[in-house]
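Justification of computing resources. Each target in the renewal requires a structure prediction run like the one illustrated here; the chain below, 373 residues long, is used simply to show the kind of job we budget for.
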Amino acid sequence: MGAVAQSSPSSLPAPAQRDLVVVGASAGGVQALRDLVSVLPAKLPAAVLVVLHLPAQGGSALPAILSRAGALPARAAQDGESIQRGRIYVAPPDFHLAVVGGKLALTRGPRENGHRPAVDVLFRTAAQSMGPRVIGVVLSGALDDGTSGMLAIAARGGVTVAQDLHEALYPAMPRSVVDHVAPDHVLSAGAIGSLLAQRCRETVDISAVPSVRSQLRLESAMAEMDRGTVTSEGPTGGPSGLTCPDCAGTLYEMEAGDLLRFRCRVGHAWSAESLAVEQGLAFESALWMAMRSLEEKAALGRQLAETARGRGTTLSAERFHVMSEEAAGAAGLIHDLLSRVDIRLLGTPTGEPPPAKHTCSNAGDGSPETAAE
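Resulting structure tokens:
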């Protein structure tokens, strides 16, 4: 099968073919991926690169699952290998999957939205390297990883696709793409597979590819662990007054359409929504730490009061008793706060009601999925 060559106007003929599909998914994404690859033809004239959010520890069964689901062979991506059409490449756990010079690259670059692999990294580097030859697809998932990368694909002339919001088990990721990118297609997962089989046969004129913006180039370099991006003056944009949850460094505001994003000097990136979730988790952790500290102080006060009484020092015993009661009372207030506060105030994603039906041409049947990952 033919290799996907490096995409630069100086090295490629015009027109070229849409021969690189990049897919991002998270919660609920395994079934959507199955449905998508099940209808892809064995001789698909494109490569398919997949990022699914995974725990850092352990392996991934996703390549085997996708190989069984359809006609295309799937495998874990290898660093430095050439991209072959008619194959599916899956990002391994705890590695970003990137496209660099028309080849696959695996890096341990800074996490984005708390994830490695991150959908945004794959989408962004594919857009930089391959321009309008890229078709980006966002499937079921929580929060908004993939939206920034999809904006880059659109800016470079690629095709943008989101899963139907009623079909997605977790519609937040595709909904964010719908809200911020206005994708070319919003379809059921199976219909997306059929669409890819058609659009991968299209030719595109790469001689008129929009140039790579400096911000896209910088963010891609950060994901690829280019140390020059760390020793430089830092990300574009002004300081936000917020700190990075991963390294406690200053976060800088980044422009991506109307999507508010932040990045620190060493490269950790956050959308505003993902940052709010992380801050909420940190807030909850701080409350538990405070309650534990106060309960320990109350226990110590009781022990000191008992010891003082045994020595007959009444004033000291009373002082330690008051200290214990005050600490126990404060711990009780925090306990009540943790018990009663709306979990959404802590930034943790919750179930959400079905979104309004998004209609578009060539939409799928919108039937709900019946199996989760």
